[in-house]
Specification:
mainly alpha, transmembrane helix
């Protein structure tokens, strides 16, 4: 009975701790806890969407395809119910609740590999980790996106084990939720495809589920595609904002061509007379980026390979998104904390690769992480974009620690058994 009660109250206590820490920041700073950048851009976009029925971002009266509509739609829905003034407070609380739900899902996911009790350590670390507290108090996509991706991974494992339509619906719902907030998840089906093959997913069921997934894709993404076609007279499957990060990425690493980002951005902009035509400007920046990449490859292919395959992945992973400190915890401490989790987490997942029971799940996670690193290294390597991976580093860290503790206990028990045997002789 005590164990059963602990299994109920311990997760509840962890989630309560997480909620109190996040609510404390809201009480302390209120609506002043903002970045005054993307977060307020989403608020303005949501307000205009609610008033004018038009998704905009850079300019009040100009439609955009620069971002996925998830966050503006979420905020607009909240504002429609509570008004803007009260809605801003409600939106903060909802993001906090989503952050707490993310911790719950992380514990459920971690329990698959480390067991229920060790999963509580994952929850405790996530509850007190300052960057998570920060994001859960901001109007950003990172929180909902991380929640959706953890649900997606959890559902993928359940789908492989149960092979039912119910878990396929769960996977699809999680995937589309993540996709409507950020495009980074778009290539996740590659990881899922490989994982299901390794798990020997029945081909007959796979074919049926594949057809169901394609139909769901058309239904869920169709409105976004139709909207973009009507507004921009072009097929835009996700967003049209990749030109800027692609150009920025050509100024990272070593040995890249001379010049500055502002210089080449101005060159591209000069070819577009209308400053409100962001799609055209992004296209021109993409052209300039590809010219620089071609020049880089021609002049110094070795430095380009080193930059894209080594230096930019390091830039992407080396730090953590913590622009707005909480509880006066300095960034220097948080970065050290993160790097410990990163190192131990990677080591933990590599250890899992040698555990036959979990090898397929390691492959799923490894491909998912590799896709994220590859995409962000090809474009603009930015530590903020690694935020959704941090929970995986925490799970990997706890897996490693649990393995070490279990081996030490096993060794101590073997030693005690030997001592008892020889003493009896």
């Amino acid at each position: 009975m005590m164990k059963k009660n602990l299994a109920i109250w311990m997760p509840f206590g962890i989630l309560l701790l997480a909620f109190i820490l996040r609510l404390g920041v809201l009480i302390q700073h209120g609506l002043d806890f903002i970045l005054a950048s993307d977060d307020m851009g989403y608020v303005s976009s949501a307000n205009r969407l609610l008033i004018h029925g038009q998704l905009t971002y850079h300019f009040p009266d100009v439609p955009t395809a620069h971002l996925m509509p998830g966050e503006p739609f979420l905020l607009a829905f909240i504002f429609s119910l509570f008004g803007l003034d009260t809605g801003l407070w409600v939106a903060k609380v909802i993001h906090i609740l989503i952050g707490c739900a993310t911790i719950f899902v992380a514990m459920k996911l971690a329990a698959h590999w480390v067991g229920q009790r060790w999963s509580w350590l994952v929850g405790i670390i996530a509850a007190i980790f300052p960057p998570f507290i920060q994001v859960d108090n901001l109007y950003l996509t990172e929180g909902v996106y991380t929640f959706a991706t953890l649900l997606l991974i959890y559902g993928s494992i359940k789908l492989a084990h149960h092979q039912t339509d119910k878990w396929l619906y769960f996977v699809m719902a999680s995937y589309f939720l993540a996709l409507y907030f950020r495009v980074n998840i778009a290539l996740y089906p590659i990881a899922l495809f490989v994982y299901l093959i390794v798990k020997r997913y029945p081909w007959k069921i796979y074919r049926r589920h594949l057809v169901m997934s394609v139909v769901a894709l058309l239904i869920v993404m169709g409105p976004w595609w139709i909207r973009n076609a009507l507004v921009f007279d072009d097929f835009i499957p996700l967003t049209a904002g990749s030109g800027d990060p692609l150009l920025l990425g050509t100024f990272q690493g070593e040995g890249y061509p001379r010049g500055s980002y502002d210089e080449f951005k101005a060159i591209g902009n000069a070819r577009v007379a209308d400053e409100t035509d962001i799609i055209a400007r992004m296209h021109e920046r993409s052209i300039e980026a590809k010219k620089r990449m071609a020049e880089w490859w021609e002049d110094d292919p070795q430095s380009m390979l080193k930059s894209y395959l080594w230096l930019k992945p390091i830039i992407y992973l080396e730090s953590v998104f913590y622009w707005k400190p909480v509880y006066d915890i300095p960034e220097s401490i948080v970065v050290i904390w993160y790097r410990v989790l990163l190192a131990l987490g990677i080591l933990g997942w590599l250890t899992m690769a040698f555990t036959k029971k979990y090898r397929a799940e390691f492959l799923l996670i490894a491909i998912y992480v590799a896709i994220n690193i590859a995409l962000n290294s090809y474009y603009f390597a930015f530590p903020r974009y690694n935020y959704p991976l941090v929970m995986l580093w925490i799970i990997g860290t706890v897996f490693l620690v649990s393995m070490i503790v279990r081996k030490l206990k096993r060794g101590r028990n073997d030693e005690e058994s030997s001592t008892r045997y020889y003493s009896s002789v």
